Amino acid sequence: MKKGMVFNIQRYSLHDGDGIRTIVFLKGCPLKCEWCSNPESQSIEPTVVFEATRCINCGKCMEACPTGARLNDDKQCEVCGKCVKACPTGALEVIGREMTVDEVVNEVEKDRSFFENSNGGVTISGGEPLQQPDFTRALIEQFKKRYIDVAIETCGYDRWDDLKSIAELCDTVLYDIKHMDSEVHMKFTGVPNELILENAAKVADINQNTIFRIPLLGGINADEENISAVGDYAKEIGVREIHLLPYHRLGEAKYRKLGMEYKCEAYTPDDDTIDKLKRLLEGKGLKVKIGG
Staple 120 to which of 20, 93, 112, 261, CB 3.0 to 4.6 Å? Predict the structure, then answer.
């Protein structure tokens, strides 16, 4: 039985696909987006997070650690979880646990009645699900056997063979487009966008329900030139729908818990700007939704 690294199963979501969704979040991502709202997902390995406001400086975590690692010390920490068990105030937590395909499917199955009453289903997200391609594919195959609608969210920065074998199984592909300029894309995500755009065209060719999703980041990509270019490319490759996702800072606190610096200086575009960009895309004949 295949196993994968899961960091959350979120129920009753009204985003990331049609109807009521259960979202399975997998660990691992090849991008390092400055605005990432799930930084705990970037590593494919389990991650220890620290909530400083709960710490009473008792030192029990240090006493329990077999390697003498300090908090947020990736080099020495073996993520054995002994510090978590030793902490009397719950200031430490391990994010990410290994689950089998059956374990995940059984959890999702609990929500079947919600799916049936709302035309919903399961969405596999991350991180980037394609960082665990065999596990992701096995999950989708089991969901489809149970007649559960499946959407996948992907950044597209993956081997085509893996992406193809997964996209052709899904009912919906939610495909992230961060920026059309490769240099800007590299600056803010750590990778260029040529492979992402190339794969987008291939995905749209094999899955007619491919939807572009654009995180709207003021000062980075929420301008008419970039959004117009996304719209033109969508039309060119046959993508008919785009979701605009206004930037938020809800993940900022997670960086502190991980001992990471939150570097993103983007801002949320105002309503007038969002409406203008929406109308720009609609003028190209595209269906546009604000939010996922």
Answer: 20
